[in-house]
Amino acid sequence: MTAFKFFQNQWTPVINNFLEKKLAEEVEDKKISQIMAYSVMAGGKRLRPLLFLATLNSLGKEITDTEIRIACGIELIHTYSLIHDDLPAMDNDDYRRGKLTSHKKWGEAEAILAGDALLPLGIEWIAQASDSAKLVKVSTEAVGPNGMVGGQYLDIDSTNNASVSNDEQYINKMEWLKTGCLIKASVEMAAIYADATQIEMVKLIDFAKGFGRAYQIYDDLVDVVESSEQAGKATHKDKEEGKNNTLTLLGIEKSRSELVSLIKQTKQNLSGLNAEVLEGFLDLYQKVL
Amino acid sequence: MTAFKFFQNQWTPVINNFLEKKLAEEVEDKKISQIMAYSVMAGGKRLRPLLFLATLNSLGKEITDTEIRIACGIELIHTYSLIHDDLPAMDNDDYRRGKLTSHKKWGEAEAILAGDALLPLGIEWIAQASDSAKLVKVSTEAVGPNGMVGGQYLDIDSTNNASVSNDEQYINKMEWLKTGCLIKASVEMAAIYADATQIEMVKLIDFAKGFGRAYQIYDDLVDVVESSEQAGKATHKDKEEGKNNTLTLLGIEKSRSELVSLIKQTKQNLSGLNAEVLEGFLDLYQKVL
Question: Which among A119, A198, A277, B242 would be 20 to 30 A from A34, CA to CA?
């Protein structure tokens, strides 16, 4: 078993248990707690919390309940973004991770509010466990108008806009903001929290940038390579809906070679760090290569 | 001129200028910046930022750009909540403060995203300017599932539900969460930020609780007492839409006498503090009495 697999098998259940237990215990109203937990517990890969924990691990920081709370705070924020992306006014998706999306299951007002509840709760967990305003700043910046939500806005603003379909700069920026920013923040938050040295910080952030960029290309490829049953959501949708992304820009084969070269480059960023686990995250992308 | 009026006249333009300038400067995408600013600059009373600043003032804390940023962060969060409340799936309002609501003006996806951008940006401003994880915790708790969003959920869950219309406990809780929590947090954040003594903290929080409870009764009364032209939004809507609130529970006259007694009690909480300005906030309610 690879170091990554071992780490993933060790911590994924810890993350899942924490999320399930704390959402039940700490959200007072049982109905909204259930609606929030429905999406949080829908079987995500826990990529962002695992990245946070693996970065701590690479810096020799011990992982306790405190660090798990920060990691899970990031996952709550990520889940909020999925719920709102799926809304009828946004991507209008009926399925996510093989289950009905929040608004299909509970109603649209409920889904908006579940997202609106998960975002501040995630930030609260980060603030409470880290006692660090800096970590809050990094995480909120990553998901605000100059981060994830800014990317969502560029996405809806450019859908079915032919003038954007060949604009590499626009597409790169949009994809980076939508997905890359929060992935990078997960690593950066761990580096700040664990008092990384300047050199470690630079290497980790370069790794995170490469990993985040690669993730988006991977995610676009999943859309065409996998059947919807494998992916647990509607695939082959991007093209039908006039979405612009790296894949529509480069085509499948060039996207794949771009991904291969990004993986190689991103591995190099980790040289000199104790980063066997972090390196293993890049294996995730093999399934579309 | 009362001390409150003087304070309000002094700081309202400072708050407005800060909001307008920073949203233009610090949000990179000019279109989403414009959509956010449209709602933020729609002419609110700036009640929550003024409460934050007036509490600092009562504790002898100097007000600089740093404190203005925290105050304005609270206003961004408040504005996000208004935009999402007005959405078609929620209250479905076409007008707010005499202008088209965000989704009527810009579209539904844009309004969802403008709210989703204002919330983390507001928290970012609070974290950045205060450098205090405690302030972040208080503000996020106030707007999360155990605060404002929890209240919104109770509201949508009980609309047109006759079994709730006589349930005083349910209605009190819903109103407190929807409106009271963030008002209380605005005062509490200032008390923490200015290192209030234990005694000052207790008095200020009691004041904030009374003021927040009174605000909701006031807001319900505005709905029936004012014409929609005066209020800048649709009035007389609550009853038509099957909303349950203190007013539908008690009727107009009993709501008024409840408000009068709350004002008296809340003033008493301030005795022994240098709180002439804070006391003046209670005069706001005269217009429905």
Answer: B242
For the stretch B84-113, pLDDT in tens is 999 999 999 999 988 999 999 999 999 999
Please tell me whether residue B99 adopts helix, strand or coil conformation: strand
The C-alpha atoms of residue A118 and residue A137 are separated, in whole angstroms, by 17
How far, in Å, CA of B86 to CA of B95, rounded?
A: 8
| B128 near A CB under 8 A | yes
Question: What is this model's ipTM?
Answer: 0.95
Contacts of B2 (CB under 8 A, 6+ apart): B280, B283
> Tokens representing B86?
């007005």
Average pLDDT over residues B195-206: 97
- The Cα of B242 is separated from the nearest Cα of chain A by a number of Å equal to 16
User: CA B17 to CA B19: how far, in whole Å?
Assistant: 5
Q: What is the pLDDT of residue A118?
A: 98
Chain A closest-CA separation from residue B82 CA (Å): 12
Q: How many angstroms separate the CA atoms of B5 and B1, rounded?
A: 6
* Residues in chain B within 8 Å Cβ distance of A121: 140, 144-145
The pLDDT of residue A238: 66
Tokens of A229: 């049953």
Residues A214, A255: Cα–Cα separation, whole Å: 10
Check CB contact under 8 Å for B90 and A112. yes
Instruction: Report the alpha-carbon distance of residue B145 to residue B148 in Å, rounded.
Output: 7
Q: Hey, are the CB atoms on B120 and A87 less than 8 Å from each other? A: no
Nearest to A144 among B121, B149, B157 (CB): B121
B145 touches chain A (CB under 8 A): yes
Q: How far apart, in whole angstroms, are the C-alpha atoms of residue A243 and residue A237?
A: 8
